[in-house]
UniProtKB/TrEMBL annotation:
It holds the Pfam family PhageP22-tail. Residues 84-129 form the Tail spike TSP1/Gp66 N-terminal domain. Coiled coil: none annotated. The lineage of its organism: Bacteria, Pseudomonadati, Pseudomonadota, Gammaproteobacteria, Enterobacterales. It comes from the Bacteria. This is Phage tail protein. Residues 135-671 form the P22 tailspike C-terminal domain.
Length: 673
């Protein structure tokens, strides 16, 4: 209690109140005995000591996330701890420590507690090996832990509402665990280790698998397609020279690696190595923070399965995360990957087979997912058939995805691929042509960086693409086939880095509506800046791009030339607009030319009939302020001037003659003789 306790209102400057305030502040800051102290109004307030104690109790109640190690460095981005309940092991004595100071806390490889801040309050605090064992021995009410049983199936059969994986479990290829429809929380403090497939069957809806970790028993042979500067290695012999055994330093080559596969040693070709968890007949479950050290996950014939925030995830020789339905003609929905990241893997980061989200587009990849250096695509919807059944997907969401340096494509949302063949258990070709299925995906905020293939690839006759950004891909930046889609804000930054003929920065070959296109740092490689000959485009920005590199259909709103900036190092800047270009042999063309330096600008108009543009008008040629109008070189028939109160001029031998339509009455008047 304060000394004077006058009861004066808040804000009082009386000397006694100021004394009481100073006394209160002293207790708040420095009292190490009392967790609470009454203020000058008699209300109990936590002291700083009390706040610290409450925080420690809260941290303890979270449970520790145990990590290895000071000696290896914190196994997180930038070797930094970010949470107060992350406990890092000191391998010299096996003790675990948590950081009691400011976050993030960097712990580089080769560290000890003493070398990274010391031990004590505000530094490293031991959670104790005994404390860790106590944490590992925690059970849910009526639950069991794996170490009490000989097999995973025995522990699953005994579990009521929870199962603690408290020690590494070594599975055999093809092993299956039946959970008999129980709604369980499976809390994984250790790994599932093995080569091959482990299947979880019949988990009840509402079940949770927390921190699962798949790891191969065998260390695979992997390649790296990137040099020390992060640039693509394109020489096959150099790629093969990177072969090494590691679970985390590259991906295992497969037949997809056509440039090197025939030259690989037989033991590498034949390794066929996975550590693969299949979740089957288990709709309505959540998998939180899945990990893999050369491993992978598959949801087989399930609805409403969500993988939340994959992390520390290094893929094996298949897709990192897949939603499959190999032998079923049913469609599946409500399946998601939410946030997180995957690294390497011979397949895609996420792949969907035969999923249809319906009207609500229930399913997909959302929440900021980053696939890194996949051996195939970052995110993919499978094309064509498997086992004679179409695996194409419809009405999914792909939002906030950031593919980085994937070997194939950043995001591949094609449904049809290759030579057209009749679809099986799907729409027929008579219903929807090849590459024109009603895929109807929502695709938003995709940022593909430095892919070896296409940044963003897809097809379909419906759907909405918004805020699509591709930069520095070796292939095309954005390549979408099919008609009837809406696009908003497409950006291409210096794609087709391989300078491949015919690869455009942006290709949209169907008839679509496009609002907002940005072409940045285009250096005129063999492909065009944009190829959209059948689409309507508004708001095209293409600084420094010549008219010969732009092929678009209808322009609405601002004219392209008004959007193209004149670059200081260019003597002349020209933009061309082709209107209604379906058959480029019949079109209308307008060119705006801006000259830097002496002179000004001119506008020319042409009609195209056949292969040669025919000039109809030229404005301000040579900066003379004149308008040049083309005359016909042959005598015009009456139907050449169909509009009342208009005229056309032609040469009749050596006579310049006007054909005049005056109120519908045609007359011919010689202008020269």
């Amino acid at each position: 209690m304060t000394t004077y306790n006058t009861g004066n209102p808040l804000g009082s400057a009386a000397a006694k109140d100021l004394y009481d305030n100073a006394e209160n502040f002293d207790h708040l800051s420095n009292d190490q005995s009392n967790e609470k102290w009454p203020d000058r109004f008699g209300r109990e307030r936590l002291t700083w000591h009390g706040i610290e104690k409450m925080s420690q109790e809260a941290i303890s109640s979270f449970g520790y996330i145990t990590l290895k190690s000071f000696q290896l460095g914190a196994p997180l981005p930038n070797n930094e701890l970010t949470l107060p309940n992350q406990a890092l092991q000191d391998e010299t004595d096996g003790e675990y420590y948590r950081w009691d100071g400011v976050f993030p806390k960097a712990v580089p490889a080769g560290s000890t507690p003493e070398s990274t801040g010391g031990i004590g309050v505000g530094k490293w605090l031991s959670v104790g090996d005994a404390a860790f064992r106590e944490e590992a021995n925690k059970k849910y009410k009526y639950s069991v832990k794996l170490s009490d049983y000989l097999t995973l199936q025995e522990s699953a059969s005994a579990a009521v509402d929870g199962l603690l994986i408290d020690e590494d479990y070594h599975f055999t290829d093809g092993e299956s665990v039946d959970f008999s429809g129980k709604v369980l929380t499976i809390d994984c403090k250790a790994k599932f280790i093995g080569d091959g497939k482990l299947t979880f069957e019949n988990l009840g809806s509402g079940s949770r698998i927390v921190h699962p970790h798949m790891q191969s028993q065998t260390v695979p042979y992997v390649i790296s397609r990137w040099d020390s500067n992060g640039e693509w290695i394109n020489d096959p012999s150099t790629i093969i020279s990177t072969l090494t055994q590691s679970r985390t330093k590259g991906y295992a080559p497969t037949t997809n690696d056509v440039d090197i596969y025939s030259s690989l040693p037989d033991n590498v070709k034949n390794q066929n190595l996975i550590s693969h968890l299949i979740i089957s007949n288990s709709s309505g479950i959540d998998i939180f923070y899945p990990k893999a050290t050369f491993g992978s996950y598959e949801s087989f014939k399930n609805n409403n399965v969500k993988f939340w925030y994959p992390r520390d995830f290094y893929g094996d020789m298949t897709n990192c995360i897949a939603f499959t339905a190999w032998d079923s003609t049913d469609y599946y929905h409500g399946n998601y990957v939410i946030g997180g990241s995957t690294n390497y893997g011979s397949g895609s980061g996420v792949c969907f087979y035969r999923n249809d989200g319906g009207v609500s587009r229930d399913g997909g990849v959302i929440g900021g997912f980053t696939p890194y250096r996949c051996g195939e695509s970052g995110v993919k919807t499978y094309q064509n058939e498997v086992n004679g059944i179409s695996q194409r997907c419809y009405s999914l969401r792909f939002i906030d995805i950031y593919p980085i340096e994937t070997y194939y494509d950043g995001v591949d949302l094609n449904a049809d691929y290759g030579t057209p063949t009749e679809r099986q258990h799907d729409y027929t070709l008579a219903q929807y042509g090849w590459n024109n299925l009603p895929t109807n995906h929502i695709v938003s905020n995709i940022q593909a960086y430095k892919t070896h293939g296409v940044g963003i690839w897809g097809d379909g006759s419906t759907g909405f693409y918004r805020d699509i950004y591709a930069s520095y891909s070796r292939g095309a930046g954005i390549f979408i086939k099919g008609s009837g889609k809406n696009f908003k804000n497409l950006t291409s930054v210096q794609n087709n880095a391989a300078n491949t003929p015919g690869e455009n920065q942006i290709t949209l070959d169907g008839a679509n509506i496009i609002d907002g296109v940005n072409i940045i740092n285009y250096t005129q490689p063999p492909g065009l800046a944009i190829f959209a000959p059948n689409s309507t485009v508004t708001n095209l920005s293409a600084p420094g791009v010549s008219s010969s590199s732009i092929n678009i259909g209808n322009i609405e709103g601002l004219v392209v030339g008004n959007q193209i900036s004149v670059q200081p190092n260019l003597a002349t800047q020209t933009s061309a607009v082709y209107l209604n270009v379906v058959n480029t042999g019949v079109a209308s063309k307008r060119e705006d030319t801006i000259k830097v330096g002496p002179g000004a600008s001119e506008v020319t108009r042409y009609v195209i009939s056949g292969s040669t543009p025919r000039l109809t008008m030229r404005e301000n040629h040579g900066d003379f302020g004149a308008v040049n109008i083309a005359f016909s070189g042959t005598v015009l028939p009456d139907e050449a001037v169909p509009d009342a109160n208009s005229y056309a001029v032609y040469w009749d031998g050596t006579n310049l003659t006007a054909l005049i339509n005056h109120g519908g009455v045609l007359t011919r008047q010689k202008l020269t003789t």
